[in-house]
Structures are given as structure tokens and as C-alpha cells.
Amino acid sequence: MKLSAVNSLLFSLLVLGSSASHASFLNPPATTAAPDSTLSQQGRDPAQFPGYIEQLKAQARQQGFDDATIETAFTGVHFVDRVIKADRGQLENKVTLSDYLNRVLTPEKIAQGRDYLQQYQNQLQPIANASGVQAHYIVALWALESHFGNIQGREEVVSALATLAFEGRREAFFTKELMAALRIIQNQQMTAAELKGSWAGAMGQSQFMPSSFLNYGKDGDGDGKIDIWNNLDDVFASTANYLQREGWRAGQGWGVEVTLPAGFDAQQAGLKTSQAKSPAQWLQAGVQVMHPENNSNSGQRAWIVTPQDGDGRSFMVYDNFRTLMRWNRSYYFAISIGMMADAITAQPAVQ
């Protein structure tokens, strides 16, 4: 089935570069306040890009990178116009929660997730045991970040990040990520052409931004390298390492969809620590769980979230949901991961 130009762009944004602690600006739907003045608003001309690259090289030298690394990283660097179009276009698209979930949680993807959970059990279970991160959450993130590694992005990360830094709307962020990419090239002995990712610089099957790769990437098979592009042991270990270090609660769930009582005070909804109650307290206040079968291992604290443009849907969520929000600061994304994890462990319906 052909997608319209708008839907094609939207779909690409849902599956690439979505990691917000990896790339916090990519929230479906996106809502970003523009600063008072940016380089992009000043009308920077792409003809100035080569001069800007020289500034980046000078900055890299100031940060201690040697000439060999800088030469390797910036050989062939180029302005990528489609990166700018994608970055600007993603802010213009709005999608409801139900539409988003229908797009990313397809029956085919859920079935594939179930198959892979079984197929890779011998690789997943030791990682789950060591980290406390259940295998089905690792598979859910793998599914939604890169469609099980099938959609990783083909942009040269250095060129993409340099282009986005040059555009200027988030210059400091992308410059920091570019310097992290240089560190990867230096540490991993890679070339810029080998360092591939999404238009936003998110890399590999786990779609880590370069700084996340440096902070959370893990060698899962002991071969001395961290390869989140081709090595599933490293992909699974890095995913679990991220969640574990960001506070994952072993054995607990993420949340469950609920209906709210009439007159529910919207000020009670949110993820601030002060807004937490026990699940029992929320139920006593009239919150009703829609699918009790998905509500095991709920933990001690719970929050109510009602996503903007969420079709009026509400959720009671737990500490692990907050950890998923550190991966990507989007209610839509965190809900989709939780629902994917639930779906691939549920008994498939009898046809």
C-alpha cells in the first residue's frame, strides 16, 4: 500500500531516531518551544557549511581529539538537506494516540515479537537474569526502535549531526552528540562511512544517540567490541544496561489502561514524585482498570497519565514507565513499549 507524502514522512519519524534520552526532541506528537533567536531563523546559507565544519574541527581539537581521528571523522562530511527537512517536518505532524498505536503495534510485528522472544531466549534470558530487565521489554524496544534491526537508518551520522548543528535550532545538543560520535570513531576504530544511523543521528538496532552509546553500550558476547548494528548480544545487553542503570524495577510491569471517575481533577495527573499514590489509593478514588489481566507486578507507586491528543485515554503507570520515559520522553512511545511487551507475552487469540 502506498503512503501519502505526509504519512510517509510521519511513518519514518515513528520508526527512526525516536530515542529521546538519545534524542529528546523527537516526541510523537512533538511540542517544542522555539528559542527567541536561532541560526536557522537567521537564515544560515548551506554555502557556509564548509566553514562551519572547520569550526567543528577546531572545537574537536580543543576537546583533545588528535588529527588522525578528526581526519577520519570529517573525511567526506557533507550537508544533508533531507535531514533538515525531516527535522522541521516532524514538528508539524500531529497524530492521536490511537492512530500512533495502530501504526506501530501491528499484528505482524506482535507475532514477530513473539517468535523472536522464543527464538532468542538463550541469548535474552541470561541478560534478563543479570539486569533484572524482563526479556519481553528488551524485545519490545528492539521491535519499535528499529523493527527488529531492519530499519536502522542509512545516514552517515557525522554528516547528519553536523548538518543539524549547523541548522542551529539545537546547535549545542547536536554539537555535543557530534563530539560523542568522534569518540566512538576513535574508540571503536571506525570510519565515518561505517557510522550509520537515522537522520537524527540515532544508531543501530537500539537507535542510541552517540552519547547514549558511550554511556550505556555494552559488550554482550565478550569479543571486546560494542556492535549495536550487527551483534544481537550487544544490542540486547546494551538495551538492558540502559534500563537497569536508569532505575528499572526487576519483575515489575509498566502500567495499565484505566478509566477515570467523573470529575477527576486533571491536576492529579502527571509523573512528578509528589503525584504518586499507591495503586490501591487510585482504585479507592474511583479509577477503574480496564484490563486487569495486564496489571500484575504493579509495584508500590503509581501515577495517572493522560497524554495530550490521547483520544481521552488514561493510564495508571508505575516506576518502570518513568524509566521508559528516560529512554524517550514521550508518553506515546512509553505506552507503545509497554503495550508491545504485554502483547508479545499474551496468549494469541484462537482463530
From TrEMBL:
Keyword Signal (UniProt): yes
Residues in the signal sequence: 1-23
Record's keyword terms, sorted: Signal
Domain Transglycosylase SLT: 49-342
The UniProt record lists the keyword Plastid: no
Pfam hit, one: SLT_2
InterPro entries: Lysozyme-like_dom_sf, MltB-like, MltB_2, SLT_2
Annotated NCBIfam families: MltB_2
Protein name: Lytic murein transglycosylase
